[in-house]
Amino acid sequence: MEQYPPWLVEALNDLNKVVEEVPGPGNNPDIVAYHHYTALDAKDDATPWCASTMCAWLERARVRSPRSAAAADFRHWGVELGDGEQRLGCVVVMTRPGGNHVALYLDEDDNGVYCLGGNQDDKVCIRRYSWDHITNFRWPN
């Protein structure tokens, strides 16, 4: 069995905790804590949080992140993995309606890439993204 990179272990722990936005005026303290790993340091769970989550998982695993709340900043973080070089736990950068998104690579098929990320349907979860939205696969350097 392939060994999981430590930031993926952090992500799986949060998946098992069921981290999701609090409806209404409240805020999930786990999501607010993710924001502390970025320069933005937002104080609520309504601020987009996919990049904050990624920064938290990386930093908790002792890997330097871009410390940015902007998913697009991951396009220049680490090293680019070439076509066919994606591997378990690599950072996937993509476009989606309303902006960009970042998540961790789990698997793929002909239709897209299965990713574990934050702020996917307002929670930490696994989703498939079609290939036409994927822009980069990145790995820590």
Description of the molecule:
By secondary structure, the chain is an alpha+beta fold. The chain has a single domain, classed as endopeptidase fold (from Nostoc punctiforme) (Alpha-Beta Complex). It has helices at residues 6-17, 29-35, 50-60; strands spanning 79-80, 91-96, 99-109, 112-120, 123-130, 134-139. Strands 1-6-2-3-4-5 form a six-stranded antiparallel β-sheet. The two termini are 23 Å apart. The model has no long low-confidence stretch (mean pLDDT 96).
Rg, nearest Å: 14 Å
CATH topology: endopeptidase fold (from Nostoc punctiforme)
What is the general shape? globular
| CATH homologous superfamily classification | endopeptidase domain like (from Nostoc punctiforme)
| Structural class computed from helices and strand pairing | alpha+beta
Distance between termini? 23 Å
Q: Mean pLDDT, rounded to whole units?
A: 96
The domain count comes to 1
Q: What is the tally of beta strands?
A: 6
**Strands across the major sheet, in which order?**
1-6-2-3-4-5
CATH architectural label: Alpha-Beta Complex
Helix run count = 3
Uncertain runs: none
CATH top level is Alpha Beta
Helix content: 10-25%
Q: What amount of the residues lies in strands? A: 25-35%
Q: Main β-sheet, in a few words?
A: 6 strands, antiparallel
Order of helices and strands: HHHEEEEEE
